[in-house]
Batch of 3 targets.
Target 1
Amino acid sequence: MQLALSTWHEVEDYLRASRGIIIPIGATEQHGPNGLIGTDHLDAEFVAKGVGDETGALVAPTLTIGMSQHHLGFTGTITLRPSTLIAVVNDVVTSLIRHGFERFLFINGHGGNVATVSAAFDEIYASVSMRPPAETWPVRCRMVFWFQGKQCSALRKQLYGDAEGSHATPSEVSLAQFYHPQAIKHAQMSPKVAPRSDRFSDAADYRRRYPDGRIGSDPSLSSPDDGERLYKAAVADMAELYRAFLAN
C-alpha cells in the first residue's frame, strides 16, 4: 500500500490496524560508468514497495536526495547539506507522528546518509523526550540498507565476491536494471575492478581518487537477471525485519 496512491480515508483505516510505515531513502548521485544517477533511491524504493506488498505495510514517498557532497565532482549529482537532510527527516517523521504513526523503518540505499539520518533520529527522540510524560509518544525509528539481510548479503557474495566493492556495485546496478530494464547502460571500464579505499573528504578529493566514480567494484558484472534474484532475497529479508521491528 503506497501513501501517495491512497486517500486520507484509507490511511485512517490503515492506522486502525497498524502504526508502522516504511520510508525509502536514497540519493541522487553518480554510480560509475553504467550505473544510473538515481540508483540509490530507485533500489530503496523498489525493495520498499515489495516489502509493502509482502507485509501490507504502508510505504511513504521516497526521499530521493540524500547527503552526497563527496560526489559533486560528477555531473548530475544533487546533494542536501547534512543540516537540511536532518530537517527533512525530522519534518517527515513528525508529520506522520501527528497522525498516529509510531514505527518508522527507513529502507536505505546510500551509505552517505547514515551519520546524518542517525543524527535526525536523535533530534526526533530528543523532541519526544522533552515533552511532558503524559504527552510522549512510543516512537521508534530505524534505518537499514536494503541489501544487509542474510539472504541478500550471501547472494551478493556468491555472485560477485570481492568485485562487489563499496560504490557503484554490481548488486545495486543489477537491481536498478531489473527495476528499469529500459534504462540499462553499457560502458567500458578500466581497470576492470576499481581502486579500493574508504579515504576521501570533499568532492575534489573523491574525484581524484576514483576517476570514474567506482570504489572497489566491477559493475560490468551486473545484469537484470541478477537483479531479480537480489530483489527477491532483499524483499524476504526486509519483510522479516519489518515484522520483527513492529513487534518490539
Target 2
Amino acid sequence: MPRFAAIDVGSNASRLRIVAVKEIGASSGSVDPEHPTPGWKTLVSERVPARLGHSVFQTGRLAPEMVDLEVETMRRFADLMEDHEVDSYRAVVTASARDAENGHELIERVRREAGIRLEAIDGLEEARLVRLAVGMKLDLGGHVLLMDLGGGSLELSELEENSPRFTTSLPVGTVRFLEAYMNSGGAVSPREDALVREALERTLSPLSESFSGARFDRLVGTGGNLEAIAKLCGEQKGTNAVFTTKAAELALEKLKKLSPKERTKKFDLKPDRADVIVPALYVVTALARLVAAEVVDVPRVGLREGLLREQVERHFRVWDAGREHANVIASARAFGRRFHFDERHGAKVAALSRRLFSALSPLHDLGDDDARVLEVAAWLHDVGEFVSPTGHDRHSQYLIEHGEIVGLSPAERREIALLARYHRRTPLDPKGPDLKGMGAQALARFSWLTGMLRVADALDREHRSKVGDLRVKLEDGVIALELVAEDDVALETWSVGRKAELLESMAGRKIEVRVA
C-alpha cells in the first residue's frame, strides 16, 4: 500500500501523521480511533509540544532555542518517514514562520539539516486544506462557517453548499493572545479579561458586514484547542464531537479563575494546553455570539488530514481538479461582489479568455495553472472601479494583491494583480518596479497572458456582451477572430486593433477580426 505523510508545524505544536492507503473508499480497519477514514491505516500519529510561536508575535522573530527545537523535531519526523518508507509527503508551517522576519532561516535549516522541504503557507491555503479535511467528516451543505483556530491565526471560511463565499485569515491566535494580554502564569485578572474582550470586539465586529447576512446552519471548529474544548464541555457524536456555546461560556468562567497549573490538575489538561485553552475559549465564544450560533461541531480533523487527502486523491487519480477550479472561481466572484464589480462583463471576458487560451495553445504551450490565472484575472480586472474609474487598473492591482481568494498561492495572487494592472495598454517594462527581476521565461509567460486578456477585454468594449460567440482560427501568418454577433461590433473591432499589439508580438502573427 502506498504511504503518505503530513507535517503541520504550528505555533503551539508540531504534528506528523503517516498513513497507508489501500484504495480510495475501501475499509482497512483504521487504527486511529480519533480520525477513522475508510481505506486509511494510520501508522504514525505524533504531536510534539514545540511552541514555535513563543515571542514571535511580540518580537517579530523566532526565538533561537525554538528554532533549534524545531529542527531537532523535524529530524525525528524525517527518520520516522524513512523508517515507514513514505512515498509522498507535504510539510507546512503556518503563522509563526510567515509572521517572522527570520522564518526563512528555519525553512533553510530544516531543509539542510533534516532534509525536509518545509513550506510556509498563508492563511488562505491553510483554510482551503482545512475545508478539504472537514469535507471528509461532515456534510457541508447549506450555509456553513468553518473556523480553524491556531496559535497564531484564525481562519474563517463561509461556505454555501460547499462552495466558498468568503474566506479570511485574522491575527487572532491562542499563543498570540496569551503572550499579548494574559501571560502572567496565574488566573485571568479583570484587566486582562477586559483587554482580550476589547481586542476581539475590535477584530471580529467588521466580519458581520462580510458575511452574507443569513443565519448559519452550522458552525464548525477545527484545531487542537477546539478538540480540547469539546472534550472538556462537549459530547461525542460518533467520531465527531459537539459542544454548546453556553457550555463553552460556563467553562471559560471556571477556567479563567484558575492558574494554568490548577487547570492542568483539576481538568486533566496537558501543560501546553492548559494556558492556551482560555484564550481559545474567549475566541470561540465571541465568534459564536457574533454569528448567533448555539452549537459548535468539532469533526476532529485538521490541517494534516487536508494535506493527506490531497496527496491521496492525486495519487489515485481521483483528485477533482474541476471542483477546485470551480471553488477558486466562486471565491473570485464573491471577492468581486464585495466591491460591486460588473459581474456580467467579468463573466464575458473570462469566457472569451478561455476561448483564446484554448485556441492559441499550439502557439503558447501554457498549462492548466496558467489558464486558471488568466480566468481569475479576467473576472477581476476591473474590480478597482469600486475605488475610482480613473486609474482603476492600479486600484485593481492593489485590491487583488491584498485580497482573499481561496485556492490561489501568494505568487498566483500577485500575478493576477499584475495582469489587472496591465490589462489596458500600459507597456510592459521589464526594468520597472512591477516586473523587475522577472526572468525571461516568466516574462514571456506573463506577456502571453496579458496579451490574451487585453484582446478578450477589447471584445467586450461596451460591457454589453455583444459578441455572442468567438471562433478562433490559426491561418498562415494570421490569427482570425470570427465574431458571432447580432449587434454592431464596430467599437469592439476598433478596440481589438488598439490592444492586439502585444498578443501579435508573442504569436508572431497579425490578428484579423471578421464578423459573421
Target 3
Amino acid sequence: MDYKRVLTIQDVSCVGQCSLTVALPIISACGVETAVLPSGVLSTHTGGFSGYTFRDLTDDMPAIEEHWQKEGIKFDSVYTGYLGSTLQIDMVSHIMDTCLKNGGTTIVDPAMADNGKLYYGFDEAFVKKMAQLCAKADIIVPNITEASFMTGVEYKTEYDRSYIDTILSALTKMGAKTVILTGVTYTNDTTGVVVSENGQYSYYEHKKLPGGCHGTGDVYASAFVGALMRGFSTFDSAALAADYTLLCIEKTLPDAKEHWYGVKFETCIPELVQMINK
C-alpha cells in the first residue's frame, strides 16, 4: 500500500462531531496519515448551541507553515473544510503552494452555506475569496447552496438535470476542475452526488432519509478524502463516502432527539474500514 500523508485545515469544535474532530478519525481509519492545522478552537459547533467559546488561531498559522518549510515537511494532499475568514483562505492558498508535494492533490470543501443561506458571519467578500480558492483546487466538494453562491446561479429546491448542468458549467467557467456536488435530489425518495470530471457527468443515487443531521458534510468530505488517498477513483470515492454517511445517519436516527448535534460516525468506523479494504 502506498502510504499517504494528508493535511486537513479547519476548525476544532471540541464537542459536536464536525470539522477536525470528524476529519482526523475518519481519514486515519482509512489508513492515511492525517496531519492537522486548526484554524480555530470552539467549545462546541455553532448549530444549536449557544454561548460557545471561540479562539481564533489565524495568527498561529504562518509560524506553523514556516516551521514545516524549515523541516521540509510536505503533504500528498491538502484538504480544507470550514475556514473562518478571507485572511485564512489566503493563508491556506499559500500553504498549498509551499507544503504540497509535486503531483499532490488539493481538495476544498467550501463549508459556508446550506439550505439557501450563508452561515453566520459570512458575506459576499468571503464567497468571492472562497470561489478563488475553489478555482485553484484540484477537487471541490460543494453542496448546491455553496455552488449557487459562488457562481451566481439562482438557488432552487426543485430542479432537473438541466439546472445541475447549468451549475456545473458555471463552476467550470469559474475555474473548478473536478466537482463533487452533494445533495442532488431528482426524486422525492432519493438523493445523491454528482461527479463532474474531465467533462464527464456521473451520478450516484441513494435513498433519502428524513430530516438532517449536523456534521454530515464533514463526514462525507473526510470519507471521500480517505478513499481517494487509498487509491479509489474519484467516482468510487464519492460513492463510498455517500454510503458511509448514509450509514452514520441511519445509526443516529433512532436517538436523534437526544443526539441532535451530530451523527454517530464512530459506531460505523468498522464498516468504513471494511469498505476501504475490499
